[in-house]
Amino acid sequence: MDHEPENNQQSSPAIILKDIALLDDYHVMMTLTAEGELQSVGYERWSLSMKNVLGFIVEGKQIRLKAVVKRDGGGICCGDSDGFYFARKDFVIEPLYEDAKDRWCYKLRQFLESLGRPKRLLVFVNPFGGKKSARKVFAKEVKPLLEDADVELDVRETKYQLHAKEIAKSMDLSKYDGIVCVSGDGVLVEVVNGMLERADWRKAVKLPIGMVPAGTGNGMIKSVLDSAGIRCCARSATISIIQGHTRSVDVATISQGTTKFFSVLMLAWGLVADIDIESEKFRWMGSARIDFYALQRIICLRQYNGRVLFLPAPGFESCGQPASISLYKDPPVSDKVLGYQGPETKFEDLEWRELKGPFVSVWLHNVPWGAEDTLAAPNAKFSDGFLDLIVVRNCPKLALLSLMTKLSDGTHVQSPYVAYLKVKAFVLEPGARIDELDKEGIIDSDGEVLARGRRSYKCDQKALMSYDKLQITVDQGLATLFSPE
Ligand SMILES: Nc1ncnc2c1ncn2[C@@H]1O[C@H](COP(=O)(O)OP(=O)(O)OP(=O)(O)O)[C@@H](O)[C@H]1O
């Protein structure tokens, strides 16, 4: 039997039910407090928070509680050894009298309903992402837990790229309490973009989105779970969705003229983008492709001409040099009702700063983790209204290699070769490679190729924007995510 720590110091909360019952075959005095603690006094003291009860079923005279219990250290869940994880566990209560059983069922149901958990979820499963394991992850880890919690599911397998975006753009919002993506970050980004392209985007962005890691890059769910000290795995991710807490997350609008892309994770240009996109050709290697190709890219290091401009967050006003700027202005269109157009703040007259190239890497991050093993921006916050900017310019190759090894714990930002700051708005003016001026680079946002310059790596993806000036503005806490706290 699992025991939760007791706190005898505090005054006892009001008891709303008290009966003699059998708990796992032992006679106990079972109580339910107004704060949702199930407690027993009998052969041993035991307690279980209703927050950790997914649901219950009645089996004859018995009530089977379908619960989860926290575990620290020890066993490995999905290969990640950091933080605690949840294990599934049933507890069986048998009140001595039939009317007591009905009372318990009534109160337990009432309590669970008062928690405001999602009851109807739209679930996207991407059978194509990552190790192509999403179907299995859904069937083995996600579905059984959601069934235990009595959640009604509408499951859609994505059939092609942008399928999830299409559905998010046209779905009936009133039918669901949230969306779940059993995928990598790519499907999440599609859903956010679909929501923001709706005429009723203000309502759509309030619908919480949950992630279950089943892709190559699971940076968002790693960031969400890690911030609560929980290991990143499908089970913990699903439990945090069932528990129904939410948090807001900043959305960055990347614009080039009237073309827009909404990003919740990151934008990269230079080394990180080249590794991310060009390593696709080594996909057969699995996750080793990133390390393998990073090594290759550092040995034959590229540097890019260009300029970045930024509006520094408070505390970072001395970074870079003062700069003047002209930003794209959205035409005063009446069709604004068609979708979100980016934050309405006027950034032009503020004190912009600049950094000039050549650049090895320019990386903007919204949340701390870029992937499960990459703590790209250790100080990033979900909804502070700022993006973390990580810039590498001149850097010896050996130091660069050492930086790559530090990405897993975020200590790369302490290097003297790295500029690490927070910005409110950002402009990228990408240029050509310094060694071969007829070759340009790739701009990558949230794992998608946003722009591809002349004679850069060719891949199947069609780029949304041209390899030219881009501007990025942040809307604080615009989207909503399921989160453990
Ligand atoms: N059935 C499908 N066939 C091909 N592509 C698909 C399919 N369903 C979804 N996709 C695309 O797969 C891409 C990657 O999805 P996902 O978010 O699951 O993984 P990822 O970790 O971001 O990327 P990947 O695993 O491909 O490196 C998304 O851009 C999505 O549009």
TrEMBL record:
Domain DAGKc: 116-258
This protein's record includes keyword Isomerase: no
Subcellular location: Vacuole membrane
Gene Ontology molecular-function annotations: ATP binding; phosphatidic acid binding; sphingosine kinase activity
GO annotation (BP), single: sphingosine biosynthetic process
UniProt xrefs under SMART domains: DAGKc
Span of the signal peptide: none
GO cellular component: plant-type vacuole membrane
Top-level EC class: transferase
The protein's name: sphingosine kinase
Organism per entry: Eutrema salsugineum
